[in-house]
Amino acid sequence: MVTLFNLFGCSSNEIDEEKTAADMEIILTQIFDSVKNGDKETFKTYFADEALNLSDFEDGWEFLLAQYKGDLLSIDCKFPMGAGTRFVPGERICHAFTTFNIITNENEYVAYIDFYTQYSSKYPEGSYKIRIFKLLTKQMLDDGENFHDCSLRYGIYYPGWPVPEVN
User: Fold this and answer.
1) 164 lies in some domain
2) Cβ 129 vs Cβ 115: under 8 Å
3) How many CB atoms neighbour CB 71 within 10 A?
4) Which residues pair with 101 in a beta bridge?
5) Domain limits at 21?
6) Within a 10 A sphere around the Cβ of 69, how many other Cβ atoms?
7) C-alpha distances in angstroms, 120 versus 47, 88, 126, 139?
8) Mean pLDDT for the chain?
9) Could you report the per-residue pLDDT of 34-66, keeping only the tens digit for each?
């Protein structure tokens, strides 16, 4: 996949996973601060239009408010990252996806995040905008919840998150 990204991706070099992970760890810290403080307006600034314009964005926000507990202790990116490019008229849009281990003083989580690394010409490379955000507790994963349905839609996961059927 990295080879395809190099041939058709947003830059002539491989995705810099270390830099991207470090940047996303800073962004995730800010996101979790906004969730902890109930600051939905700041939280929304990290998301792509496709996620923000969904009718159930509020449902995802409410789930995160109920789900995320405690003071953030650590964020750790699980490598390798995946990356891809899609083309729309006049634009080349690059994205990456990975999971992060999140630890607070009250719980442990795993977050799946799919985000633009270059959203469009109005957002330069490195202007990360989140397309998909799914936060699960380690207990939810142990109980059989997974990340398999994440790539089928945009937005913030919540129980009952409608996923389109794949034929």
Assistant:
1) no
2) yes
3) 10
4) 76, 110
5) 2-156
6) 14
7) 14, 10, 11, 37
8) 81
9) 999 999 999 999 998 889 999 999 999 999 999
CATH number, domain of 37, equals: 3.10.450
Q: Is residue 163 part of a domain?
A: no
> DSSP 3-state assignment of 73?
strand
pLDDT in tens, 108-134: 999 999 888 766 566 556 568 898 899
Q: How many domains does the chain have?
A: 1
* Cis status, amide bond into 124, omega within 30 of 0: no
- Model confidence, pTM: 0.80
Is the residue at 166 inside a domain? no
Nearest to 125 by CA among 115, 114, 112, 111: 115
| CB-based contact 104:127 (threshold 8 Å) | no
What three-state secondary structure class fits 120? strand
C-alpha closest to that of 16 among 99, 147, 125: 125
Could you give the CA distance from residue 88 to residue 137 in angstroms, rounded to a whole number?
A: 36
Question: Bridge-partner residues for 132, per DSSP?
Answer: 114, 155
